[in-house]
Amino acid sequence: MDERKRDSMIAYLRHRMNDFGISPDDLAAFLATERAGSDRGRYRSAGGETWSGEGEVPQWLKQAMSAGQSIGHFELPWGALAQPATQTDADWKNDPFAGSPLARSSQR
After folding, report:
1. What is the value of pTM for the model shown?
2. Exposure of 30 in the CB half-sphere (CA atoms within 13 A)
3. For residues 66 and 77, is the Cβ–Cβ distance under 8 A?
4. Contact status, residue 87 vs residue 20, Cβ threshold 8 Å
5. How far is residue 69 from each of residues 11, 46, 62, measured CA to CA in Å?
6. Considering just the CA atoms, what is the radius of gyration of the chain in Å?
7. Would you report the helix, strand and coil content of the chain in percent, each value rounded to 5?
8. b vs e for 15-50, b when ≥16 Cβ sit within 10 Å of the residue's Cβ?
9. Residue 97, H or E segment
10. What confidence tens digit (pLDDT) does each residue in 29-71 have?
């Protein structure tokens, strides 16, 4: 990524963080807890069961895969287990990331 695009992305992210009331300290704390709590699971079932991806594949995942479901369907996006900040007056109409995995993960 060239320097101009990088600077533009940083400005955009600062603006969005301000819109949601997220401080750099909030972001640092979230990243620290994500690393510390990364053993919570890499895959999650509809019932809330999780699996780290290490060791024996759990029965719920074996059954789903034998029924034709891909393992990727159960893979958690980065940060999905954290509680996102919520704000009802956010304007998503002009969001350049609308429809992307970045936008979907931040709106849960």
Report:
1. 0.39
2. 14
3. no
4. yes
5. 40, 13, 10
6. 17
7. 50, 5, 45
8. eeeeeeebeeeeeeebeeeeeeeeeebebbeeeeeb
9. none
10. 887 775 544 456 788 888 888 888 888 999 999 999 999 998 8
